[in-house]
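$ run holo --ligand "LWGJIB7O" --emit tokens
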Amino acid sequence: MTHPAQPKASHFINGAYVEDTAGTPIPVIYAATGEQIATVYAATPAIVEQALSTAKAAQKAWAKMTGTERGRILRRAADIMRERNHELSVLETYDTGKPLQETLVADATSGADALEYFGGLAGSLTGEHIPMGEDWVYTVREALGLCVGIGAWNYPTQIACWKGAPALACGNSMVFKPSETTPLCALKVAEILHEAGLPAGLYNVIQGMGEVGAALVTDPRVDKVSLTGSVPTGKKVYAAAAAGMKHVTMELGGKSPLIIFDDADVENAVGGAINGNFYSSGQVCSNGTRVFVQKGIKEKFLARLAERTGAAVLGDPQDEATSFGPMVTENQMNIVLGYIEKGKEEGARLICGGKRADMPGFFVEPTVFADVTDDMTIAREEIFGPVMSVLDFDTEEEVIARANDTEFGLSAGVFTNDFSRAHRVIGQLEAGSCFINSYNDAPVEAPFGGVKASGVGRENSKEAIKHFSQVKSVYVRMGDVEAAF
Ligand SMILES: NC(=O)c1ccc[n+]([C@@H]2O[C@H](COP(=O)([O-])OP(=O)(O)OC[C@H]3O[C@@H](n4cnc5c(N)ncnc54)[C@H](O)[C@@H]3O)[C@@H](O)[C@H]2O)c1
Ligand SMILES: NCCCC=O
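-- output --
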């Protein structure tokens, strides 16, 4: 019998599902059991062409509609997503393995927030009037044209919406390629947008691996590329986009610092460290995986952390009582287990976890290492799994320098009851998305993105509008034109 997660077809183009079984088959594996639950096919060159030409053709009429008309469709799509939250969350759980307890509150709901927020902004995208004596300049905020979105596998619904909603609000069209690991959820986003009244051709989803992504990025009809992925992929995609002088947004990886001072509320700091390391089984780009703890509270912090981590419920992700799911794939599990072995070999002290869980599926126990030093592999490389490194520090000055000593700069957090110190420290941290006495909040109203190797541009908030539109300026002369001859 066909699994309920099997989509009607692999691609969604020009307002309808499209299949082309000549493409490479992509198995969809449910991470909690290892069972194949669906198959999609990578886009053939014919499918890539169909998606790009349809998106190119549809965009101009969409940009001519008023922002209010465009926004109404996005807000309708948000309402449908909220009505279907349970069904979409179950699918997200099949796609990623993340527990339903999480997907019910963090995925379709976050996608709906983006559609609602950018739908609300669409009618207010105006230019300005600049007086120049009796002459004047006016500016117009215009769409970029045809945008490509390429997604990572940890938040397939959210990424499809975080890119699609601002792109469409500004009058662009989009071809979105989900990660080949989680190809299912973006198709539902496309289906819902069209059900809400989006004209055909404006939001298309095609499947495939890196080659399909590369074919999209290098196509001369494409005006903008927004990638969520790793730093190595980001470097390739950014270079390819630059060759065609395209706009980019790069949402990439991180190895973010979370700094806990002696005066912090220990219970809150432990909660922040758990949210910043074990949510989505550690598969979150902004995770604060280098937890710097001031020596005075180190042992108290570790004891409470081990106790609370021991309360994680590993199990069937579709059971709402489960609070901790598997790694997305067997490969990702093996990468994470490899890092855990490295941590042990390099002399970090294992506080809890440290191995594959004894159950079916790709589960790795939530793992905490203490006495981690800055040079250890687990403190330098992005693991993208449930492995927390706890490092000691003495002074504020020292911890700021060590926190910044990385190529990455996505996020950073500080826990302290001294608010002058909190702002002083955050002000010196090289990171794009920061937290004080909290960790990993990502509301649509706040800009999200990194500095240094972690990325270029911002998603969410009014900032995202700047990255999906451009400004035309028009000088208007009211008098005669003077010329030299
Ligand atoms: N900053 C953020 O917002 C954010 C959010 C989620 C994940 N991430 C990062 O994503 C990474 C994990 O996701 P992943 O393993 O799917 O990343 P990845 O870099 O392997 O792949 C990302 C996407 O890029 C595509 N791709 C690969 N090569 C390409 C090429 N040459 N041209 C065009 N597209 C290409 C892949 O098919 C996939 O869809 C982590 O590093 C994580 O930190 C960042
Ligand atoms: N909820 C924000 C997740 C973004 C990165 O993985």
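-- notes --
The mean pLDDT is 98.
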